[in-house]
Amino acid sequence: MYKAIKVIVKGKVQGVGFRPFIYNLSKKYHLNGSVQNNFDRVVIIAEGEERLVKKMVDEIKKSPPKLAKINEINIHQIPLAHYKEFTIIPSVKNGRSIPWIPADAAICEKCLEEMNDPYNRRFHYPFINCTQCGPRYTIISRLPYDRSNTTMKEFTMCLDCEVEYEDPWNRRHHAQPICCSDCGPTLTLYNQGGKTLAENQSAITQTVDLIKKGKIVAIKGIGGFHLACDAYQEKVVDQLRLRKKRPQKPLAIMVKSIEVARNLCFISSQEENLLTSPEMPIVILKRKREGVVPPNISPGLSTIGVMLPYTPLHHLLFENHKLECIVMTSANPSGLPMLYSDDHLEHLQNICDNILTHNRKIDFPIDDSVVQCDAENAIFVRRARGFVPEPLKTTSNVDHIIALGGNQKNTFSVGKQNNIVMSPHVGNLENEEMIDSFEEQLHHYKEFLGVKEKYMAIDKHPLYASTSIATKLNRKIISIQHHHAHHVSCMEDNGLNEPCLGIILDGTGYGEDGNIWGFEFLYGDAKYFERLAHLKYTPLPGGERAVKEPWRNAVGMLLYYWPQEGKELCMELFPERLTEINMMEQMIVHQMNTPMAGTCGRLFDAVSAILGICSISTYEGEAAIKLSDYMNRTKLESTGKMYSFHLKTNTASQLQLDLSPMIYQIIQDKLQQQSIPAIIQKFHTTLVSCCVQMILKLLRNRPELNRTVVLSGGSFQNVFLAREIQKGLQKEGFNVYTHRQVPCHDGGLSLGQIIIAAHQL
């Protein structure tokens, strides 16, 4: 019996070889009809024997292309039209639901084999790609995803590529970036003055020689320029740090193969899966002590960010065995937007010796994604290349709402119907250049998605850049408390709707009482929240300066807790700071430029400074990162030892965590020259215990509260804290959730903001 159906497939179905896949199924099952892309779906008409039509649908559901992700399949029986054949028909731009913009994908095995085959016409061609790999997001100007809507429209296909593109049996059938050395992009190597040194294969060979000789080369990739140098040469790494103005922040490395990565680092099976996935992110790995990578790659840390070659060009750089491990860090000067256009070459000339670029335009810059693993969980540190811009489905009506995120590690979120599209990592909105970059990307997303926002959700902090951006756009503004957004971000990340408890540990967030929050115990959902408990406030002498100089946190705490003895302890711990300590004492007494703060980030800063680990931060979170890294270095002993703390009730009938006994005991241990790793382990164990004890005490006071807890905020990048607090609460019968698809830090803030805004409307 013959049957005709119309199949509408929504999800990640553009730029993943979906139409050729359907065409091949039509031949396999002897079906006639058509397949077509449009703005937000693929539409299939299939006519044939009923059992064969059913087999085709089953195979679409069970075995779609590797890069595809099907969200929804709708099947409708339609009258027979008696098609004579099966065809791929031109795309149309219509449809109201969310368009799924394909992400960039690392080179696939088949393309890699062809590139290394001397008899293949794409031998050593650095822009080889197919329907299963290559640039997508970074080259798309508009949707639907057709070559004419990408930056590849500037390259006219040669006859050979055109034959492959039109052949439904070829794996490059309708591969939009298809090209070869006769018709595609080319490479050029320049010296520092802008003079052409070489092109194409010769440019690659000379680049390898330059890197081997200790030169720093800017290399244009899929999403922007990287700075590359030989990671084994300590002096050139120092030179790169000097030029990039990045004295301490870890640098990522790219290694030739998984075997090289294993020689340098310990790698679990999950970490290996991430390293070799189509997204190929940077994975934070524990380095082996006998490794040959110099310590200045990640100063003061036991870990290193590692990635494998993910573009054809990267593989060609390692091809002749001269290089094994290179630094690959974004080329922008610290704190400025990514450099991705040839218009930016003059900015690169000050920080590199040579520039290897190509003439395929990047429409959308994007940074490398960064993940770390804790047992079976992958944790996003930076959600970008390969993972963006995958829409997140929600039960909330977020249509026409845009959330602008925070000032640090910024991302924004755009709502369309019941889908949220989060931007990639933008960065810190601390200067005009970063704000311009933010506004440009936001405009691009609105155009892509066809969204004209009616409402803008922003952080309540009056001095955040998002406030002035939203005001300038003259939209209806919804201000949202920072930690409430963190709480709801983790709820949404786990599909939770019922009110629940939240432990929010982070660095800085504007509090509703005018103080700085960041060690919060909340209860609520997207509609409302209660602050049930928090860390006791202590002064931050100098405000923002105290964030960049952690020793000031410590001095502020000591002078506040013990005015007389505290000053003596300050002078013993920081003898070179006597004049400043006297000045800060007066600032605290007279409450001059000394906001009150109770945050986990500032607590870590203070302890890091007290223990002599980091007194001045050269990058965001440095003191806390270096302190918590000690928990990775040695096998932890379950001693059960803890410092003292108090849980008290304040005037607002909230519970308050007083950690002054712990601070005092840590100082005594330090002055008595106790083992620093032992002090740090005891400090971490105390924080875990006080969080668990606080939740238990809150439930004793309020037994009607839901026993579900979400953990959010930047301090939960500390794997030990997240794991042990989760385990401790689970032992007490709580359901505990951590982040899965978005970062726990401010990179996930816009997700919480957009959901809260939807419920406030």
Question: Can you give a write-up of this model?
Answer:
The structure is a single chain. By secondary structure, the chain is of the alpha/beta class. It folds into four domains: 2-88, Alpha-Beta Plaits, CATH 3.30.70; 187-370, DHBP synthase; 391-494 and 745-760, Nucleotidyltransferase, domain 5 (2-Layer Sandwich), CATH 3.30.420.360; 502-737, 2-Layer Sandwich (Nucleotidyltransferase, domain 5), CATH 3.30.420.40. 33% of the residues lie in helices and 22% in strands. The strands form four sheets. Strands 6, 7, 8, 9, 10, 11, 12, 13, 14, 15, 16 and 17 form a twelve-stranded mixed beta sheet that branches. Strands 24, 25, 26, 27, 28, 29, 30, 31 and 32 form a nine-stranded mixed beta sheet that branches. Helix 20 runs antiparallel to helix 21. It starts with a strand and ends with a helix.
Gist of the model:
The chain is an alpha/beta fold and 761 residues long.
SSE inventory with pairings:
Elements: E1 2-12, H1 18-28, E2 32-38, E3 41-49, H2 50-62, E4 69-77, E5 86-88, H3 109-115, H4 159-166, E6 187-191, E7 196-199, H5 200-212, E8 217-220, E9 225-230, H6 234-244, E10 253-255, H7 258-264, E11 265-266, H8 269-275, E12 282-287, E13 303-307, H9 312-317, E14 325-330, H10 345-348, E15 354-358, E16 370-374, E17 377-382, E18 392-393, E19 401-403, E20 413-416, E21 419-422, H11 432-449, E22 455-459, H12 465-473, E23 476-480, H13 482-493, E24 500-510, E25 516-524, E26 529-535, E27 538-539, H14 544-548, H15 550-561, H16 563-573, H17 578-589, E28 596-599, H18 600-610, H19 622-633, E29 646-649, E30 655-658, H20 660-671, H21 676-701, E31 708-712, H22 719-731, E32 735-737, H23 749-760
